[in-house]
Structures are given as structure tokens and as C-alpha cells.
Amino acid sequence: MYNGFSTVAAVIPGVFVADPHSNAQSIKDVVAQAAKNGAEIIVTPELSITGYSCQDLFNNDFLLHEAENALDDLLTFSLSIRSIIIVGMPIDVCGSLVNAAVVIQKGNILGVVAKSFLPNYGEFYEKRWFTSILDINETTITLCMQKVTVTPRPQIFQTPDGLRFGIEICEDVWAPVPPSCHLALAGADIIFNLSASDELVGKHQYLRDLIRMHSARLICGYVYASAGYGESTQDVVYGGKLFVAENGHFENIGQRFSMQPQVCMGQIDIETLRHERRANSTFSCSRKDMDAIVVNTDYTSFEESIDIIRNVNSTPFIPSSDRMNDTCAEILSIQALGLVKRLQHTHCKNAVIGISGGLDSTLALLVVVKAFDMLNIDRKGIIGVTMPGFGTSGRTYNNAISLMKFLGITILEIPIGDSVKQHFHDIGHDINIHDVTYENSQARERTQILMDLSNKYNGMVIGTGDLSELALGWCTYNGDHMSMYAVNAGVPKTLVRYLVKHAAHNYVDEESKAVLLDIVDTPISPELIPADSDGNITQKTEDLVGPYELHDFFLYHFMRHGMTPQRILMLAMKAFDFDRATIVYWLKVFCRRFFNQQFKRSCLPDGPKVGSVSLSPRGDWRMPSDASSMAWLKYMETETK
User: Fold this and answer.
1) What is the pTM of this model?
2) What distance in Å separates the CA atoms of residue 403 and residue 394, rounded to the nearest whole number?
3) Residues catalogued as catalytic
4) 473 contacts 466 by C-beta, under 8 angstroms
5) Is residue 126 within 8 Å of residue 118, measured between CB atoms?
6) 312-333 per-position pLDDT tens digit
């Protein structure tokens, strides 16, 4: 395990039915390839030393003798590599034959795990040859001149760096309560499955879903290797299936129906899995009375840095392209339904919302329109207020007016210039000094107008700020920070653009679509500093606070997975083209702002949660407003030296 990641491999060697020595050589070939690529633990298919389809030959003493000799050959081979190898073979246990997984490393047999559930239906008649480990008392046998305990008790194998893994065999995972449930609750981070699953129409997809959801339920890594080309095709075909799954998704999948040996590599994020388990009270309270025999290994971790071979998504908040439309529609429905309930509860027929012509207020307006339509309330009850100030550009102003017009809401235009100038005079501020007072005075003036209008129209002020702004504190306290219901509070900045684009293509007419797409292309800005001589935006948010794609990446892994700065930095280096110094700089900005701006999040208005990350002080994130970021920043300082 390196920096919280364990590199694993599921392999399919060439198979020669009932020829253990040829199978041993095939196993050595694929294992050597996987070990060369950094695999720490390598799993082969069920009964890989003999082949799964030997049938009554399993009762032949010579085959069992040759299988043990082949295992001895693999033990000698294992001296040349650091990896832990899991191979399948039949083993005689005091006169009963078990279908077993043998765990070997550096010439030693670390343990034997035998199959619990034996299929005895269809084309599978394992009970004809094998005995379930559940029907055998714990005993010690001699295998390849080594003493080995064979037991029905759960076994967990543990490496010196703390990685814990368990093993089950094929049919075990199909049982109502698989052995892996006990193993995971007893602390196993990864489950390895040696299998021989035949090919039937529809079975493959079912198995994929089973393994994916099983890894999610157990919050574990699940590595699966099933018999492939070379097994007997007398009655069934073994197409070869390889899966590396982690907590509900696949890190890698092998090629089915291949005639060649295969190596399927993957990396399991052990630290994230453990964080998820700690955070999941249901998982924690299920662990009572779950224990297992712990078998220690002497696996030597790779001291040198390893490459991250797993895919690192640079936009973790963005749904995959094949689910984009459905997910965007779902998010908009969640936002709108939350507002619908609030409007009904307050008997409110009007909503007041500030429209700047930017992304956030546009998304919020689309949500309000959807909510009014769901309630069958006249859109004229939506009071859209544009409040041009010192930094408002012609582009955003025109887009704000056009959008409100096309959506059929009530339009109010209230310039704030004179009011803010009077305020500057009252507090003695020089209008030529464009500092935080200059900027925040405008934001608070706009909020005051919206609040007063809500009283006038007996309406509700709808907040427009998004999740990313809340994380960074990029909002004016008691300005745009405040509202009566914040519909965007659970939506990160990187996702806002996709939601607006989705609405443009699915919910509005062509005129509105053109305006929405132009808003999508407009630079993100609070527009609190005067535009240039040509009327162009001069104050671009990402120039000041940093790229939102980075900050959303930091936010996701900090919040969702509780990651250390070291791991966030390592993943960001893999996910982005930014150089290390740039990522470190903005990560320091994120850490400093996230901690220092908690006081703004401690008094947030209500708003709907839409994803797995939320900053609501009443739900997902409870943090003292005076928590220190010093430890995080000190670590980041070391990265710049």
C-alpha cells in the first residue's frame, strides 16, 4: 500500500485441463507481468492449478499429487517477486476434498481459504467432488511440507502497512449472506474472489451489477477473476471475466471471450474506503460480534513512488456524458421541489430574485420558474430585479433583461449607483478607492433592495449563491450571502454551467436558448469594479480566487473523502495539466479560505442538498468558526520548499 492506495491485479492464465505443471507455468507468466507492473496482490481464477472443469478427475490421487507439486513450483517462483499470490486448487483435508484458495508469498503458504457454498444445480455439481468448509472442523494439514491451518472461521490477511484483505470463492458471492459480508465487517478492505462462472445470455450483466453493488454495500474493494479460454467446453463455455471494483464503481474490467492470457490491474483507495466506513453509522453499528482470524504477511511495500494508474476525474461533480441529461434534470427537479414546498408552506405567491446576467442568478431564476410552473402560479409573481452598478457590463445587463423578458416574469430595474454614492458619503469612503468596502457596499445595497421588495410584494427572496462560493467564502456577509431560500446552495460552480446549458437545450424557446448559451460563455465575475473603456468585464473571479475546476476538485475530496493535503495534491497532479507549484498555491488558498470563512456558513439560509457534498451547518458540515488551518498550511509550505 502506497500513500493509501493498493495496487492489485486479477489475472487469467492459459488453462490446460488436468495439467497442473503447464498451468503453473501459465500462472507464473501472468503473475510475473502483473508483479512487474506493481501489483501487490494478484488473484487467479478458481482451481487455476488444475483447471475448474476436471469433473471426476478431482477424485484421482495422481491429479491431487501433481497439483501439490505445481504449488511447490509456484512457491519457489514466489521467492523472486514481492507480490502476494492467490491461486486455486483442490486440497485433501483429512479425507475430504475442498475447493481452496492458497495464499502464498516469498516461498511461504500464508493460509488456505476453502469454499463455503457449493453449487449443485444446472451444470454445476461441486458437491459430487468437494465438501464445504462449513462442514469441516478446524484442522492442521501439511501442504508442500508446510503446516497450514484449514478452518471454517473467517480469515483476514494483513500486511505490515495495515492493508487487510479477505477471500471468497465463486458461488460464495451469490449466497444470501456471502462470507465477504463477515470479512468486510471484521475489517477487510479488499475482497478477492476466485471464480469459474460460465457464460449464459444475460448472466454477465447480472454478475456485473452484483459485484458493483456488493462492493458498494460493503464499502470495499472487490477483485474478481473468473476462468477463461482453455477450460473444457463440453457443456458450457467459460469466457473469462475480470473485475476490479471499488465502492460501487469499476476501476477496471477485463476483456471477455479473449483467447489470450489477461492481466487486469487496478488501484484501490484504501484510505477513502476507511473514511467512508467511519462516516457510515449503519456500517459501524453492523460490526458488533464480527471477528476473524488475522494472518500477518511480511509483504514489503514499494518504497519508491508508484504511478497512479487509476482514472482520476478532474470534475468529480460533473455527471458522466451518458447520464448528463438525466442527472441535470434530476438536480433541477430537486431544487425546484424544495422551493415548491417552501412556497406552499409560507403561502407565498411571489418570489423576489436579483438577476445579474451571470450563471448563478440565471440558474436560480430557472429553478424559480420551474417551481412556479409546478404550482401553476403565474410567472408574473416572480419579481426579477436587475440592479446595475459601477461594474455592470453591457453584455450581462442585456442578457439579464432579455432573459427575464423571454421567461415572462415581472421586470424591475433599480440602478444602485446613487444609493451607494450616498452611502460612501455617509461613512466617509472615497469612491476612487476600489477596496473591499467599495465592493461589499454594492453587494449589501442590492440585498437590502431585495429584502425590502420582498416586504412590499409579500414575497420571498431567493438566494443565488452556489456551493463553491460558500466553500471559499466568496460572498459578502449579509449581502449576497443572505436570502430566504438558497436554491443553489448545493450546486458547485463547475456544475452550474452544465445545468444552465441543459436548460437551454431542453426547457426554453430559441430566443431564450440563445441568451442562456451566451450567459454560459460569459466570464464569471461579481462585476463590482468598473468595466474598461470598451465596456468589457475587468474583474474576473478566477483571476482573483483561482480556477473553480481546482477548487471544486479540492472541495470534493476534502469533504467527500476526508483526504489529506498530500493525497489531494497527488490526485490533482494526475487529474490536471497544471504544474505542481500552481496546484500547491491554489490548494493553500483553498485551505486558508475554507477555514477562515466558516463563520459565513454557520448562519446559512435553508437550501436543498442535491449531491453527496453539502455545507449546510444543520446537516452535512458542522465545523467551529474558529477552527485553525495552520496544520494544513504548514504541510503545504513544505511542498513549496
Assistant:
1) 0.88
2) 14
3) 46, 115, 170
4) no
5) yes
6) 999 999 988 888 999 999 999 9
